[in-house]
Every structure is written in structure tokens, then in C-alpha cells.
Amino acid sequence: MSTSSQSSAGDEKHASKVEVTQQPNEIEHQLSTFKSLNGHTINVVRSQDRQLALEQLGYKQELSRTYSYFDLFGVAFSIMGLLPSICAIFTQSTSAGASSSWGWLFTSFCGILPVGIALAELGSAFPSASAVYLAAWKFAPEKLKDVCAYSVCVLDSIALSAGACSVFFSCSGQILSCVQVAKTDFEATHGKKYGIYAGCIILGAIIGSFSGKISVRIQQIAIYFNLFLLVLVFIALPIGTKNKDIPFNDGKFIFGNSENYSNWSTGGNWILNALVPAAWTISAFDSPIHMSEEAVYTPRNMKRHVLMDPKASPAAFGIIMSISACGLLGWLMLICIYACMGPSVSAIMNSSYDNILTQVFMNSLGKKWTLAIMSLMSIGCFLMGVSAIMATSRNFYALCRDRVLPPIPADWLAVVNTKTNTPVRAMYGTCTVSLLLGLLIFQDQGANSLFTIAVAGFYMALAIPMLLKITYARNFFDKGPFFLGNKSSYIINVIAVGYQCFMIVLMMIPSVNHPNKEEMNYTVVFTFGILAMALSGFYLFMHKYFKGPRSNLSDQEYLEAVGEDAGIDAILSQEKVE
């Protein structure tokens, strides 16, 4: 298919030159470009072998490949942790009435799923833990590549860190709710919340640093544990409601009840509180991408439809499966809870418990069963946090590898532990950031901002490469094994960008109309403030170090990894002009 001429093996300044007949319409003939450590610009034809494709992008394979597409589904599904997450957002959802279940269904499948599909295409095209920012760098105009990529790095990192914080914060709240059930005179203070929060993060970081084989088992346990929780509540709650002679709510109540516990109009309150809960729960679905360098791939079977070949794009299918499962199961769970909560919404909303779902369980199941279920949900929430901090640490490792931080700390953090084959240093860097962000717990609005920053920053980071893909890069964007075709891909990305812009605005609107300083939503301040400081730092000094993707392969290592024996059709190397 091609002929080659090998340059001198001892000359480290040159690489092989090979002539090739290009076939641009085939997946295996897409051209990638990166700079080696020696300053050479290297162009390679991308392989369907995802491990080989990673090395074609210029990165060493340092992490152990142990995750199947089902395991990556488990990472995202366990982060979403359906029942613990519903517990966390139930107050907001119920403040719009039982009909908020429609908002969950609409947001899940008309908004979040298109975003997930668009993200799956990006992750498939760039099989790296830093795929989102790599896509932004590749798709942006030449003069804006570095600043676009850096902006995505900052937004995605802050969103992931805030997401991990919000999960562990919810976990600490659920643990304290269990104590409240057992001891009615117990007072949950900010100090107690932060103490439990810090302990959960440190323990989660230790577990997340285990070897790949152990981590895979943890994800599998998390999948089945979360499913067990759902089945338990689906069975126990209706039985308990019937035994307590609490009347079941009918379909008119479940699908038509509307409430307004704010000073917004009823319609405005419904939009704010019925559409947002699903976005808070079904989030961090980019986690399979950040774990993609640990995924086991099978080359794409071109005889099958792309949707019938999940092993060729494990991260892509992990994203889509987790969103679909949580969208459907979450909707059914809300219907179940609203059917069993009793006819008085006010009685539930005015509960003395820190989490009002506890009141629903107490009414239907009694103290012992409520304590048991809440305890199990606390464990499920902790497993969510472990998955979240694992994905965050992989992203942190990948960004440090490309020197998003100054060289000395970045190079120190971008080291993989040789015993566990995991980025232990990046894990504890992530842990430190989470402990600092967690100090917002001591201010109620600051704590709420952890949730909104996690979603607003996340969508802002994803929207940048997706917007570039349908505008500037529309005629030359990269395609991976998972790609639905030019027309379908364009429509999906347009929907995804539109939904993300809409949801970013919703995340920054205060929960009450004409808020005072205690009621203000500070998400806009935190998100844009952090981004402004980061960009200031970039233009002042980080532009000297951050130049986009930075290969950690020498020319010789590159040739050994993707030389003629690997079946590469073309390798062109030329020295950088000094």
C-alpha cells in the first residue's frame, strides 16, 4: 500500500520518510500532527488501534489498559449515582411540583443525550485523557489555538474538581441525615460537614490510587450497588406506603401537579427547578474520556454499523449508555417517589430533616428502614465520589503532561506510579484542590455554587470545541471510530451547543427574584472570575510554557512505537526551523 525509505538509524534528528497514496475518506487515513520533544513536527496516519493512535498523538502509553466499555459505563454511572443524586436534588425538583418529572425526561433525552453523543465523537477522535482540550486546540484558528485550549483546560478542570466536591459534600450531608434519624436532637453544623467531607475525600483518594485491576472491580461493585439501591426503593417504598395506609397519588397529580416555592412566576419557577435537576445529576459524563487511556480497544469492524461495535469506542459507549440509563431510570424513580409521597407537598417541603427525601422514607417505611436506606445511599454516594476523583485525577495528569501548570510542578505531577500504573501524584493534587474548594461549605451560597460551577463550567468547556467543530473546523474536523456521519453529526452538535448555552444561563440565575446578598447566585462570579484570573495568568507568563499538546515521546520512542511494524502508512518528520 506504500513504499518506504529508512533514514540512518543513528541520526536522532530525522525519522522515516514514506510515500503514501492518500484515501482521505477512510477512518484509518486521517492525518494527525504533533511536535516531538526534539522540536520536530511529525505527521502520521491515524490507526484504528486506539493504543497506537494515542502514541500517534505523541503520548506514551503509561497507564494500564484494563477498562472495557462496560467498565467505563460504570465509571460514569457510579459518578451519577442515581438514587443518592436524586436525594440531593429532590428539594429543588419538588419545589416545582411532581410534574418536574417531565423536566427530567426532556432534559435527559433532548438536551444531555445530544451533548453526550457529540462528546463521544470527540473522545473517539482523540483517544486521550485530555480529548476535550485537544479537540479545541485542533479545531481552533491558528492564532487562537493555545488560548482556546487553555480556556477549556481551566474550565474543565474547575468543573471536574467542583463536581467531585459536590458529590462528597452530598455524601457528608447524607451521613449527617442518618445521624439525624438516629438522634433527633443532633445538630448538623458546617464544621461537622467539612470534617466528614475531608475524611471522605482523603479515603476516596487512597482507594482511587489503587492499581487498574482493583479500580475496575470497584467500578463494577459501584454499578451493581447503585442498581441494587434502585431496585430496593422501587420495591420497598410502594409496599411501605400501602402498609402505612398512605394514599397513592394518581397520574393527574404525578404528571400535572405544579408548585411554586419561590417569588418567580409559576412558569419561571418550573423552568428553573424542573429542568436543572437532571443536569446536576446526569453530569460528569465525560469521565469515560478521562479514563480512555486505560480502556481496552478492539479495532473497528467496518462491516458493522457504528452503534453495533462498542468495543471499538469504549469511552463513547460509556458516555451514551450512562446518560440513557440514568435518564430513564431517574424518571421512573421520580415517578415512584411522587406516587408514594402523599397528597401534601407542603408537608414534605416543610420537613425538619436536612434532606426532605428522608421525610418521604420516614412516612412510608419508618425509622429503621429509613436509616438502613439512607445508610446505603451514603455508601453509594461515597462510591460516586471515588469514581469522580479518579476521573478528575486522570484529567489533571493529562493536563500536567502538557504543562498547563508551570514546568516544575507540572512535570512532578505528571508522573505515573510504576507499582500501580496510576497517576498517584495527580490524585493527591486533585485531593488538595478539592479540600480547598470544600471550604465554600462554610458559606451556604458558596456551597450551592459547587453544584452550579460543576455544571456551568463543564458545559462551557464542552461547548467550545463543539462550536468550533460546526463553524471554523466544519470541513476538516477529525473523525474517530465512533462517528454518525457528516449530516447527523452537524445536527447533533448544533442541538448540543444550543442546549449548553441555555443551561449555562439557567445555572447562573438566582433561585429567587430580586435576591439579596445571601440569596444571590454567585456562580457567574466564581466561574468567570476563575476564568479571568486564569487567562490573565496565561497572557502574563503561562503562554511561555503552554503551547498546546506536548509530546512526551522522543523521536526514537515514536519510531519504535509506530514504525513500519505497526502498519503505519506514512510517517513524515521534519526538523523544526530554529
From TrEMBL:
Organism superkingdom: Eukaryota
InterPro entries: AA/rel_permease1
Pfam families, alphabetized: AA_permease_2
Main location class: membrane
TM helices/strands, residue ranges: 69-91, 111-135, 147-169, 194-214, 221-240, 270-291, 312-341, 369-391, 426-443, 449-468, 489-509, 521-541
Subcellular location as annotated: Membrane
Keyword Iron-sulfur: no
Membrane association type: Multi-pass membrane protein
UniProt entry keywords in alphabetical sequence: Membrane, Transmembrane, Transmembrane helix, Transport
Ranges where the record places region Disordered: 1-22
GO CC term, one of those recorded: membrane
Single GO MF descriptor: transmembrane transporter activity
PANTHER family assigned: AMINO-ACID PERMEASE BAT1 (PTHR45649), GABA-SPECIFIC PERMEASE (PTHR45649:SF6)
Protein name (database record): Related to GABA-specific permease
Organism annotation: Hanseniaspora guilliermondii
